[in-house]
Amino acid sequence: MNLREYFRKMRGSTRGGPPRVSNGDILWSWIGAFLGIAVVAWVNRLFFEGLDLSLMIGSFGASAVLVYGAVRSPLAQPRNLIGGHVLCAIVGVLCWKLLSQNMWLAESVAVATSIAVMHATRTLHPPGGATALIAVIGSPEIHKLGFLYLIFPTTIGPLILLAIALLVNNVPSSRRYPEIWF
Fold this sequence. Notes:
single chain, mainly alpha, 8 helices
């Protein structure tokens, strides 16, 4: 490929913008995201407040976009939601433990390795990259968790999001979740 063809690829396609989403899908996406994040926050407050444990991390916001707003996406399916977060948490904690003396290296290796691991295991879930990065750049409380980070928050949080997604996404006849389990 010559240089001109290389740069021409950056123009994108001529297919137009993304398709419109119905008002009903917008409403159900909102309801699902509200309930999913609210239940994670409520469980966090009820069981983990004052224990130096947190059930809420930023990558769950991105997971909510997928599991409530893009229910048919392969990236939103249960295997990807749970597997992506858990595998990336393992990668992130390992990178923190092994490379924290060089933060730039720990951060970049955590995200890059997470992508590779998710591809290799067919669990690609973009918020997983953030879960790995949070394990590296997170607060001292996150770092103190060590491998407990795999359970609190990165297994329990996505399981709650999944439970709410199963309940909410199947209420309207126009939606079905999941498309596939494994």
